[in-house]
Specification:
With about 280 residues, the protein is an alpha/beta fold.
Length: about 280
């Protein structure tokens, strides 16, 4: 199924699941980590320190990918079902009208989203209808767009065999780009390789999602829109100890996690929707 950012740099493939308890990860040498609330500025951080941060990210990616590859297929399937069912039953999902969601890729061992997407696209009533945007990678320079689709048939396989929307519909008309839409999205369902309960997210290294999220947040700010809820889908094995994921200034934190064990609110906005 589709993949966005992670795909082009995303030659690196993999993610997985595990058990209900958060998975601990440790390095053989101390990590250079900053307080959860702050980010390391790439403009002011010495080059050797940035190299160390990128090296730490690479090590963590390798660790999580290995864990995902070793995941039992049945266990993974059970976690996929649990995560998607939790989202489908969540009031914040039912009430959202416009959302962005990734199209999962089994080769990357991403949390499956096929059930969620089918539910959105086959919504039987006007009250439950939702506008859906999914990612399309445009180039090697972190350029990813979120385009509107109304059917799964709107997806085509790219050169890497990953599903993504064609730029035009069956009538030859350009698909609506979420950045050009007249109304804001309520929700973004995000992939990733590793997460912690303070909101840190480790992607696959391409920077596609962080770039898109930063641009969309700025757009929402300019238009006085409410910022969308950023919710990541995660197998249990992808949740690491707080502070283990190194961050730079370009990394965007998430608002909440959905794992097989339930919804994990992180920010005040996320806590409010379940209170």
């Amino acid at each position: 199924m589709l993949v966005v950012q992670r795909v082009l740099v995303g030659v690196m493939i993999t993610r997985q699941c595990t058990i209900a308890r958060p998975h601990a990860f440790s390095f053989s040498r101390p990590l250079i980590l900053r307080p959860t609330a702050s980010h390391v500025s790439m403009a002011t951080t010495p080059e050797h320190q940035l190299e160390d941060i990128f090296s730490q990210k690479k090590l963590l990616r390798s660790k999580i990918k290995k864990d995902l590859r070793s995941m039992d297929p049945l266990h993974r399937s059970q976690q996929n079902d649990a995560i998607q069912n939790l989202i489908l039953e969540a009031p914040w999902f039912k009430s959202c009208k416009r959302l962005c969601a990734y199209i999962s890729c089994s080769a990357l061992r991403e949390v499956d989203t096929s059930k969620l997407l089918q539910h959105v696209l086959q919504s039987p009533t006007k009250e439950s209808a939702k506008i859906l945007y999914v990612p399309r990678v445009e180039d090697n320079n972190c350029h990813m767009r979120m385009l509107n689709i109304s059917h799964m048939d709107d997806l085509i396989a790219n050169s890497m065999k990953i599903l993504e929307p064609a730029p035009v519909d069956a009538d030859g008309k350009d698909r609506e780009d979420v950045m050009l839409a007249d109304e804001p999205v309520d929700l973004l369902l995000l992939p990733g390789l590793a997460f912690d309960k303070t909101g840190r997210r480790l992607g696959r290294g391409g920077g596609y999602y962080d770039t898109f999220l930063s641009k969309y947040r700025e757009l929402a700010k300019q238009r006085n829109w409410k910022q969308p809820l950023l919710v990541a889908l995660s197998y249990s094995v992808q949740i690491v100890e707080d502070g283990v994921i190194p961050l730079t200034q370009t990394d965007v934190n998430i608002d909440a996690l959905v794992s097989p064990s339930g919804f994990i609110p992180i920010t005040l906005e996320a806590q409010q929707i379940i209170s």
